[in-house]
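Ex. 9. Protein: Ig domain protein, group 2 domain protein.
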Amino acid sequence: MNLFSPNENDFNFILADAGRDILINGIATRALISNLKVKSDYDDKYISTLTELSQGDRIEYNGLYWLIVSEVNGKRYEKYKGVMRACNFDIKFNFAGNIKTFPAIVESKVFDIETGQYMTLPVGKILMTIQDNSDTKNIILNQRIIKMDSAWKVIGIDKTKNGLVILHLEKDSFGSSDDKENEIANRWQYEHIYKLTINEGESANILKDDTLQLSVKLTDNGVAVDSPSITYVSSDANICNIDNNGLITGIAEGKAIITAQMTGKPDVKDTISINVKVNHNYVLTITNESATLNIGDNLQLNYTLTDNGVIVDNPNVIFTSSDNNIATVNSSGLITGISIGTVTITAQMADRPEIYDILEVTVQEVPISHNYSISINGGATIKLNQTLSYTATFYDNGVEVADQSGTWSITSPNPDGTTNVYATIQSQTGNSVSIKATSTSSYVNKYLELVCTLNSDNTIKASKQIQVKSLF
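Predicted structure tokens for Ig domain protein, group 2 domain protein:
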């Protein structure tokens, strides 16, 4: 290596060994970075590279942006060399809504060539050095920025140094369009933040065939927009529809989502859930005419449910008994008698318990099935002019009972169809009779028929055939 006449190969060797990866105006390369020999109030460093270098170039190194602040007089000793200074701020400039960010060197003092010393700028003024490029050329006088919790206004533009723009700024007042949080001056002058709100809230109820007028509020950066153009959409026009003026009409029972959106900006929107209800007029009627059943028997409760006079199909109805010890009722309305007594059976809508009807049910003992019969007791013969007594015994299902009685009669049917009285009834009670035979001798050996008819059921009779005998 010739130290007095270095060549490019020698410098390449040094770059490979001690160089750093950097970006010059966004292009990757390598360079030697070293500190200045003279102490400075700035973070300045020497940069040497084989890549062409000019004053004002932007360097990306060690996580920072730097600007070449020294003049670079071409290539010397096969390389380019200059002084770069660290940018201490990123400044956002607003070009009519187009935000550009520039790395900048911001300072509050300047170097006085005559005295060789730094002079502090008046309070409220700063200098800003940025790269001179196609974007920064658009900066104009009175353009504003926000930095260090203050607003600043450009009052001077110095382009005497090649590749650099030096801006003179003075402190300015904040304006209503400034975005202090994001340090963007005049942001809201060009940017719009729209917010649309449906004043009726998140949900509303209307009746079928009724209407509801929506009211909306559209703001731009917090300021109400007069007469905004709004587009309305219903998620289900079969449930409810909405016209261009925001008037909702209930069509059928159910729910639908109404969306109000700024015309031309569909992302600026709000929604409301509309619940359309029907004005119901339910009537539940139990149709059973009678409600008496025996213990152990069942009775199906029948009913109808109407809504505005129209029968409701498959209604959800529940049934209850006022006393399950007397009668029970299942989920289908089947009533079962349990013991003697009277209960109230209630049928009511499951979701509208105020809609109901009742049925009084009487439970009684199981009726006994009677099978009555009669037996006549007494002799089978009677003599002329003789008086005899006969008794009747009453049975129910073959068991003798004492709560029945009968009426007595005598017949004497002949083969020719005529009736002759061979005896007469002298007296009778419900279970006994006294009869007297005729005294006519011609009736000897004739027969008469003694009949006892059950008083509680005249279809039940008993008869006894009695023969008339002579006295001797």
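Check your answer against this statement. The first strand starts at residue 20 and ends at 24.
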